[in-house]
Amino acid sequence: MGVGKTATCQYLKRLLDRCVFLDGDWCWDMSPFQVTRETKKMVMENIRFLLNNFIRCSEYENIIFCWVMHEQKIMDDILSGLDTSECAVHRVSLICSENALRERLGKDVEAGIRGEDVVARSLDRIILYENLDTVKVDVSYISAEEAAAVIKEMFSAGLAVQN
C-alpha cells in the first residue's frame, strides 16, 4: 500500500500496445468495507473472471493487473484460476525503502486519502515481498512514470519472471 502500484500501472498502460488495466482494489470498492470469508471469495472470483475475459478478448495484447499481493498464496490463487496457456505472465513487485514508504503514506494520511493505521500495516508487510516469486523494482527514488518505463524495458528484454 502506498508504493505507487496504480499510478505506475496507469503509465504502463499508455506505454504498451492494445492494453487493458485492472486494479484489484476496484473489486473491493464497497461500503461498508467488509473483509469476510464470503467477500474474499467473491473478490477473487471477480478478479479471475475479469482477467480471463481480458485474456480471451482478441482486442488486447497486454493485460495489467495490480493489487496488494504480499503473500505468494494470493498470486498463486489468482493464477490457478486463469487460462494462461496462450500467454506469458510477468510478475513484478514494486518495493521501496521504509523511509520512502513512510513519506508517501504520510502525504496520503495528511491529505485524508488514507487512515493513519495504513502506515504500520504497510511497514509490517514490507519484508514479506522478499519471499515472492517476482522481479522486484525498487521505486524508492523514482517516479511512477519512471517505474513504468523500467517495467516496459524489462518485458522487452525478457527479464521479468514468466509463467
Biggest sheet, spatial arrangement of strands: 4-3-5
Order of helices and strands: HEHEHEHHEHE
User: Could you say which structural class the secondary elements and strand pairing correspond to?
Assistant: alpha/beta
- Specify the CATH architecture: 3-Layer(aba) Sandwich
**Oligomerization state of this entry?**
single chain
Average pLDDT confidence is 93
Tally of separate domains: 1
Number of strands: 5
Strand content: 5-15%
Main sheet summary: 3 strands, mixed
Helix share, percent: 40-55%
Low-confidence stretches: none
* CATH fourth-tier homologous superfamily: P-loop containing nucleotide triphosphate hydrolases
In CATH, what is the class? Alpha Beta
Radius of gyration: 16 Å
The coarse silhouette is: globular
How far apart, in Å, are the first and last alpha carbons? Answer: 25 Å
Write the layout of secondary structure elements.
Layout: H1 5-15, E1 19-23, H2 37-56, E2 62-66, H3 72-80, E3 90-95, H4 98-110, H5 117-125, E4 135-138, H6 144-157, E5 161-162
Parallel strand pairs: 1-2, 3-4
Antiparallel strand pairs: 3-5
Helix pairs in contact: 1-6, 4-5
Descriptive notes:
The protein is an alpha/beta fold. The protein has one domain (5-162): 3-Layer(aba) Sandwich (Rossmann fold), CATH 3.40.50.300. It has helices spanning 5-15, 37-56, 72-80, 98-110, 117-125, 144-157; strands at residues 19-23, 62-66, 90-95, 135-138, 161-162. The protein has a three-stranded mixed beta sheet with strand order 4-3-5, covered by helices on one side. Strands 1-2 form a two-stranded parallel sheet. The longest helix has 20 residues, at 37-56.
